[in-house]
Amino acid sequence: MQFTPALLTALAGRFTPVKTPAVSTPPAQRDPAVAARVSGMLTDIEKGGLDAVLRYAAELDGYDGRPVELDAETVARSGDRLPADLRSAIELGGERTRAFAAAQREHLVDFSTELTPGLVVGQRYVPVGRVGAYLPAGRFPLTASAFMTVGVAKVAGVPSVVACTPPQPHGGANDAVLYAAAVSGVDRVFVLGGVQALAAMAFGLVGDGPVDMLVGAGNAFVAEAKRQLFGTVAIDLLAGPSEVAVIADETADPVLVAADLLGQAEHGPNSPAALVTTSQELARAVVAEVDHQLQTLATRDIAGAAWRDHGSVTWAADRETAATLMDDLAPEHLEVLTADDDWYHDRLTNYGSLFIGPWSTVAYSDKGMAGTNHTLPTAGGAKHSAGLSVSRYLKPLTYQRIAREATPDLATAVQVISDSEGMAAHSATATLRTARWR
Prior knowledge:
Blueprint: H1 5-10, E1 15-19, H2 32-61, E2 69-70, H3 72-76, H4 84-106, E3 111-116, E4 119-127, E5 130-134, H5 145-156, E6 160-165, H6 175-184, E7 188-191, H7 194-202, E8 213-215, H8 220-229, E9 234-235, E10 244-248, H9 254-265, E11 273-277, H10 280-294, H11 300-310, E12 311-316, H12 319-329, E13 333-337, H13 341-347, E14 353-356, H14 362-366, E15 394-402, H15 407-421, H16 424-437
Parallel strand pairs: 5-6, 5-8, 6-7, 8-9, 10-11, 10-13, 11-12, 13-14
Antiparallel strand pairs: 1-12, 2-7, 3-4, 4-15
Pathway: Amino-acid biosynthesis; L-histidine biosynthesis; L-histidine from 5-phospho-alpha-D-ribose 1-diphosphate: step 9/9
Active site: 332-333
GO molecular function: histidinol dehydrogenase activity; metal ion binding; NAD binding
């Protein structure tokens, strides 16, 4: 998450870097070694089938020969093994995420219209048939991931949603992740991790057959597997590492700004965090406050490395410059903590999801409580793409119904264009209908 050099040249004199990243290479840079390893694994699994999947599961995750699919009772009763407060929080997150997805779905309406007498065209939304969701459960189990992938797919009407989640040291699934999948409506769950899990779902080695779409976050190997499997299946998007950016002015609380920057830096040592502010005093205060909070932060080894290597603070001369700089970054998560929040909301266009005002924080969406989806574009992808939503699971299928009386208007123009292109068969499809119309 870095500014475009050409933009910095154009804005020269209107901003000042206060803290720059220690590492100049992009944090999401593709690793050729990872790509080669994933390619070899996918080829092996495509040829070797489930035996190859289980061989990799044994090699990488300590698979011990037990069934990889969890029975329905184990999935349904996973909540019984959780503390009551965690169970209630998971239920609330699942409910909020489904509610927002349902509201999105209500605004995606089928329609038809008559463009000219006898020419009726339209569109209907049809869900994909099968979805495979990857539910991370490594160093930081992403409990809410099931809300965003499984739950939203079910709201969209996807008939079959299978999930894979990596085994824990005891060989089973993480119960919090499993319960989140259960309350989200998952159909089947398999204890498989990494590349082998994605390949198994894509090639139809687990579940009811090959999935049509793979969704969910993961490490560099998971992201690379999705990249290479795209085309064989659809994917939600290529995302990661997690990013956060904040626009703030002199009214912002540096303690909250620092905490929110570290909240996303905690995802991993290569997670970027950026502040653009119109207040030089706030810029200095946030840098000092981040250092202060890191002293007692339990995850300071992770968040501190991310802040050192990929953190930045930039002073902008005015709000127009601040907005221009931020739209260039196009961050995954963007917080606006200013006296002009509405102005920024109207002005900004490039972000994955926006968090407005001092009472908003990215963690509310990360954990599913805000209801919005946390699977979002990174590495500048927000300049051209949106995050995962109910619409991603729906195919907007168009149709046309043409009556006899519309033939002259359509056929004549198609004949002229087809003849100019030298496409005689296209022309014939029109002229034959003209002859029958007469």
